[in-house]
Amino acid sequence: MQMRSMGGDFGMRATPGPACVWFLLKGAMARIAAAGQAFFARARFRQKQLALVESVALGDRRLVGVIQFEGQRFLVGSAPSSVTLLAQLPDARTTSARASAVESEGEGQ
């Protein structure tokens, strides 16, 4: 036994009107914009892991510089066509701890 609706179907489907589509798109765009702002805010305040701490120009587009990455420091030389690791320096944390210890010993005398 098949049941029929009282109102009749008449072959029509419910389709969203232009206003409904507009509101859905507006909500989706607002969510996308908020997600983009949150992404760029995190990227803006994120601390850099790689930094050129100091550099000295040697002329003719050559330089010697100290690069720091995650606390490790490297002395590098660069020329127009190459970059060369000259030395791995003591960690920045180790150096600053030693400097603090030397300063505190000097103040105690």
List keywords for this structure.
single chain, 109 residues, 2 domains, 4-stranded antiparallel sheet, 2 helices, elongated
Polypeptide structure, described:
With 109 residues, the protein is an alpha+beta fold. It has two domains: 30 residues; 58 residues, no CATH class. Helix content is 40%, strand content 31%. The protein has two helices and four strands. A hairpin with a 2-residue loop joins strand 3 and strand 4. The termini are far apart. The mean pLDDT is 76.
Please indicate the count of domains: 2
How large is the share of residues in beta strands? Answer: 25-35%
Overall mean pLDDT stands at 76
Radius of gyration: 32 Å
Shape: elongated
Query: Tell me about the biggest sheet?
Result: 4 strands, antiparallel
What is the helix content? 40-55%
Q: Flag low-confidence runs.
A: none
Q: How many β-strand stretches?
A: 4
Spatial separation of the terminal alpha carbons: 104 Å
Strand-pairing-aware structural class:
alpha+beta
Counted by DSSP, the helix tally is 2
